Amino acid sequence: MSERVAIEVRDLRIETRAGAAIVEGVDLAVERGSILGLVGESGSGKSTLALGLLGYCQAGLRIARGAVHVDGTDLLALTDAQVRSHRGRDIAYVPQDPQTALSPAQRIGEQIHRILRRHAPERDTPETVALVLQRVGLPADRDFVRRFPHQLSGGQQQRVAIAMAIACEPAVVVFDEPTTGLDVVTQARILDEIRRLSGESDVAMIYVSHDLAVVAEIADRVAVMYGGRFLEEGATADVLQRPLHPYTAGLIDAIPDHRRFAMPRGVPGVAVAVGERPAGCIFEARCALRVPNCAVEEPSLDVVLPGRAVRCFEWERTPPLARPERVEPALAGDAEPLLRIEALSAGYSAGGSTRLVLRDIDLTVARGRSVALVGESGSGKTTLARCIIGLHPPASGAIRLGGEDLAPRARQRSLDARRRIQLVFQNPYDSLNPRQPVGRQTAWPARRLRGLSSTDADGETLRLLDLLRLPARVAQRYPHELSGGERQRVAIARALAAAPDVLVCDEITSALDVSVQAAVLELLAELRSALGLSMLFISHDLGVVAAVADDVLVLDRGEICEAGPARDVLTAPSAEYTRQLVEAAPALEGSDGGGAS
Amino acid sequence: MAEALRSSDGERQPNPFIRFLWRRLAVGVVLAVVVSVVIFAATDLLPGDAAQAILGKTATPEAVEALRVQLGLDRPAVQRYGEWLGGIAQGDLGDSLSTRGPVTEAISGRVVNSLILAGLAALIMIPLSLAIGAYAGTRPGRPGDLVASGTSLVFIAVPEFVTAAFLILILAIGADLLPPVSIVAPGTSPLATPAILVLPVLTLLLASLAHNVRMVRAGVIETMHSPYVQMARLNGLSEREVVFRHGLRNALPPAVQVIALNLQWLIGGIVIVEFVFQYPGVGQLLTQAVALRDIPLVQALAILIAVLYIVINIVTDLLVVLLVPRLRTAGAS
Ligand code: SF4
Known about the structure:
- The complex is a heterodimer.
- Chain A is an alpha/beta fold.
- In chain A, α8 packs across α21 (576-584).
- The radius of gyration of chain A is 25 Å and the shape is globular.
- By secondary structure, chain B is mainly alpha-helical.
- Chain B has two domains: 15-89, no CATH class; 103-328, Orthogonal Bundle (MetI-like fold), CATH 1.10.3720.
- Chain B has 14 helices and no strands.
- Chain B has helices spanning 2-5, 16-45, 50-55, 61-71, 77-89, 103-137, 143-157, 160-174, 195-224, 227-234, 239-277, 282-291, 295-323, 325-328.
- The longest helix of chain B is centred in the C-terminal third of the chain and has 39 residues, at 239-277.
- Chain B is flat and about 85 Å long.
- The structure holds iron/sulfur cluster.
- Iron/sulfur cluster binds at residues 246, 281, 283-284, 287, 289-290, 294, 299, 312-314 of chain A.
- Residues 246, 281, 283-284, 287, 289-290, 294, 299, 312-314 of chain A line the site of iron/sulfur cluster (SF4).
């Protein structure tokens, strides 16, 4: 590599105080003007690595070994005070959540000034601040620089964070999941902006994300992290087309894609925990290709093809990507309507007046069908879910179940009506009782709503756990002892324990890693055909919708702007809003590794 | 702060801060009126009769009746309350029964004395608690923090009259450095002999400081773990700037609320401290007035203290609003 290399990392190891590695043996180099994507699921060590690139560790961690050369200087060989003078000047960081990372009590102009004053006092002028804001597509008038972070939208906040990062014209910028938490349209705009900055400012960028589809849109090269190590590295397009590591292949297969109606496939097993990392290959426990040697010896990251490195003994056997077409469940074309929502409006009252968040919603879920309700946060989709299960009385309109009108509040409904509609919440951390073994929680709906005896309910619990591919011993566990995916499956089991007719799923996979999400989606598809379940699937993720839904309704600020069969809506959207969503949603297919803007 | 009042939103629409200020003041006035009713009712209506209370159980009914007329107690309570309130509005708090002079005269010197005491304590307490709290909060678990938090725990556990007794024992009687009582000659200011102020101020300080330090410390620990502090460090800002502009600055709003609570406590604490040190302030006057059944004086002092509480509350709310931009601006986007 040449002097174009802006950051070079050698053999970096970051460990806990107890000595367990979070990041191990990482080597990387990024040239000016190019973007390296770092992809990993939760627990892969990607955020720790991102901070480590600035010579920074969170409390309880330490950099144990290695070198981080930024523009020729090894940050790890410097004193604290010296490293500080490089941070923000030669290497800058864009945080995951600008809403909490921008100081709430300082005007945004002031925050940019402070960085300039610290690192480039000669350029600390209002003109520089205005210029920097313009470069990230923000207005630079006096009114804007005097705003506080809370007066900006999420997208604007993230642009301010990027402006702060590029203010001193650093050699390297590290982005740590900068678009997580933004809606897809805003995300697409921010990605455009980053790509444009990379093109025009000769800076090396490292883009950390859990989302391979996002990285595919922006990065020139990509490194896949798992268990603190790089498992594979190569040019983005090559890696996506022909992954060499079985984990990469599994990850790609797990990503739902709204441009292709393929069924995502989960990677079996759960990610290794810190401190439980095995002696041999880090991926051994979940790998389908493993050979006896894998458990004893750790493979090294070797360049096996030009520009391609992989950490696997058996990489030649990694199967090519094969996405099975989604199996369409056999449907009667004229299935009887089960859940009907007619002209429903709902809102929240504030100071005497009611602000409607849902207007005139009509929706039908026929028996055995899966209907997806798509919308960004703030579209009112969660309110609708709450109306359906009787947690939020609508302002007007009707909810019918099998021809029978449902009362607005759950406690006015009959036990049987309550049993027939079950909701699975977005976050299983919140919806499961932390102080009860999960078996008790899944048995409860069976006893209360179906009137089963306690022995029968326990039997039912075991049957459901098995159905959701959870071992029976999970019944005795408390929620905190389970992984995120296990918890969400327990939450689904609890809903199924009521033997419902309709399952309402509110963003149930959005808190999960893709490989786990895929497993849950697969499971839901199986449950549908096995139990003849009808589903109302609420999601913002078009890929997920493409994987599960027969019909799609698109919710735009409280109103349904488009409805129809999933294939039609997602491939040929008619409403302008849907078109924007479909275009903005990142996808592996159809992206070109990031040149276009 | 003045600059903050002219925030950019103010030019276009009624400044939310000004609106908040008016609303808060109005609530304060209503509250003061309600409190005055309670005070008037409690001292004037409930315990039988003021004239009876003044003359004692042995007084003849004729003497009581005569005093009732003299005090105007024969007129309806509502009318008397109206007169009392009207008097207050004009700065006339009535006549004291014990001094036979205007209440305002009896209390004005005392009020100044008490304000000196409480003011000095507050003046030292506020910056000191911020400084110690920030010091401890930026190094949790390290020796400096352990000393600061450990000491403050001790003082929280000990009531102020015990602290006062200890201080007198050690500094006044044992070491003979300071006078054990703080008597001020009538007509002179306590500031003329600063030595007598040391022990009472120290007592008030020790009792209120500790609580503040702990709250400031907790707030600073929290903000120092916040993403924006991490971000400030990743931007390479100096540790000084990180601690002051980000850590301490954002820990201020909750700290202000705790400090205000402690100021209010200070008013209560002053009654005890003035009694212990025989310092001629409002607290001592209040205990005397109760003992002498000087009802107009008790009423005046009670309403004064209540208004002070309300004012502290309003000032605190305003400060918090000024310190939290999200509260003082309308959310434009
Ligand atoms: S080294 Fe072995 S266990 Fe590891 S990924 Fe390759 S085949 Fe699987």
